[in-house]
Amino acid sequence: MSKFGLITKGLLKENPTFVLVLGLCPTLATTTSAMNGLEMGLATMFVLILSNIVISLIAPVVPDKVHIPVYIVVIATFVTLLQLLMQAYVPDVYETLGLFIPLIVVNCIVLGRAEAFASKNSVGDSALDGIGIGIGFTLSLTVIGIVREILGSGSIFGWKFIAGDGVLAFVMAPGAFLVLGYLMVLFNKLAKR
Amino acid sequence: MAAKSNLTNMALSLTLVCLVCSALLGGIYALTAAPIEQAQQAKTNSSIARVLPAFDSVPELETIEVDGASYTYYRVPGSGYAVISKVVGFGGPLTLMVGIGEDGLVCNTVVLSHSETPGLGAKCQTDASFIDQFKGWDPAARRLAVTKDGGEVDAITASTITSRAYTAAVANAYNVYLKLSENE
Q1: Which residues of B18-37 are buried (b: 16+ CB within 10 A; e: fewer)?
Q2: A66 contacts B14? CB cut-off 8 A
Q3: Residue A161 lies in a domain
Q4: Given 3-state DSSP classes, what are the helix, strand and coil percentages for chain A, each rounded to the nearest 5?
Q5: How confident is the model at residue A79, as a pLDDT?
Q6: Is B95 on the interface with A (CB under 8 A)?
Q7: A164 in a structural domain
Q8: Given a cut of 70, is residue B1 above it in pLDDT?
Q9: Phi, psi at residue A6, to the nearest 5°?
Q10: Residues A24, A171: contact at Cβ < 8 Å?
Q11: How many H helices and E strands in chain A?
C-alpha cells in the first residue's frame, strides 16, 4: 500500500467509527459538542501514533504469549503520560474529558491497530497508520459533535446562532446513538459510490 | 515475527517493559508535578476571587466540622470565607464554592464540579438569573429554599432538584460561616 494510502484509508475504507465501529464508548460519551469531539479525537490520536511506533519497534523481540500484556503496558504508559501533561498544561480540557482520557487505554482502536498493523509493519508505516486512523477518528468525532451541538445547543464550536436551547435530547445519550446511526448510514451510502 | 515464548524471555521482556515504562512515567510525573500544582492553585485562586470581594491577603486553607460533616474553607482576612460545599445533585455530587463576606451576606457562588444533566441542571453553572439571585443574599433574613419549598429562591425551569441541591449547598456554607463566627 502506498504511503499516501496508509493515511487516507483511515478516513474512508477503514474509518474507525463509521466502518470498523470501534471505540464507541468515547464516541458516544464525549461528542456533546464539536470542540469536545475534536479534543477527544486528538488525545486518542496522540496515544495511537506513539503506541504504534513503539510497538512496531519492540514487536519482533516480544515473546508471542505475552505480547498483549506488553502492548497494554506500552499503551497505558502513553495514556498516563498524556493525562499528566494535560493536567499540567490544559487543565480545562482535562476536566471536560475527565474519565475518558484514562479510558483510552482500553479503547479497542488503539490495541486493534497495535495487533493488526503495528506488530507486523515497519516503524514508518505504523506511524503513518496511526496518523491516518487518528485523523479518521478525530474527524468522525468532530462531525458527530458538530451535528449534536447544532441540534442540541444551537451553536457550533461554541458560537451560538440561535438564542435559547436546542433539542436537549441530542446533548444526552439517546441523541448520541441517533446521530451516530444516521451518520453511519449516510457515510456508508456515500462511501459505496 | 514475534519470538518463540519460554519462561525466561517472557519474564524478562515483561520486567524490562514495565521497568522502562515506570521509569518514564516517574520522570514525567516529576516534571509535571509543579505545573499541575500551579494549575490547580490558579483555579482555586480564581474561584476565590470570584466569590469574595476584592482582597489582597493570602487565603488560608482550613477545615471545620459542622453537624457531623467536614468542610474545607479558605479564610481570607479582610474579605470573608470561601466555603467549599458538597451536596448530592440530580446526577451526582455537586460541589460549590460559596463566598460569604465578613458582614454575613452571601457574596457570590461558583460551581466547582457537577454531573447534572446537560442543558437542564447543568445550567446552574451558566444561568445568570439563577446564580445572581444569591449575590448579596442575607440568609439570616431570607430563607434559603426554592419557592416550591416555601423559600425565596427561584429555581431553574425544569431543574428543581438541581436548584434545591444548589440552594442547600449555599445554606450549608452559611451554617459553616455561623459556626466560624461563633468561634471567634
Answers
A1: eeebeeebeebeeebeeebe
A2: yes
A3: no
A4: 75, 5, 20
A5: 95
A6: no
A7: no
A8: no
A9: -60, -35
A10: no
A11: 8, 2
Grid cell for residue B39 = 494549575
Strands of B106-113's sheet in order across: B60-66, B69-76, B80-88, B93-101, B106-113
**Single-letter amino acid code for the residue at B131:** I
Q: Read off the pTM.
A: 0.81
Strand partners, B81: B75, B100
* Per-residue model confidence as pLDDT tens digits over B50-103: 888 888 778 888 888 888 888 999 988 888 899 999 999 998 899 999 999 888
| Interchain CB distance below 8 Å, B28 and A91 | no
Q: Is B136 left (phi over 0), alpha (psi -120 to 50) or beta?
A: left
Tell me whether residue A117 is exposed, middle or buried, using C-beta atoms within 10 angstroms of its C-beta: 0 to 12, 13 to 18, 19 or more: buried
Look up cell 445554606; give the residue: B171
A71 within domain boundaries? yes
* Residue A62 domain flag: yes
Which H or E run includes B33? helix B7-51
- Other beta carbons within 10 angstroms of residue B143's beta carbon come to 13
| Residue range of the domain that includes A137 | 3-146
ipTM: 0.79
**Count of the separate structural domains present in chain A:** 1
* Interchain pair B21, A73: CB under 8 A: yes
Chain A residue numbers touching B14 (CB-CB < 8 A):
66, 69-70, 73
Residue A1 — pLDDT band, cuts 50, 70, 90? low
Is the CB of residue B124 less than 8 Å from the CB of residue B156? yes
pLDDT at residue A29 tops 60: yes
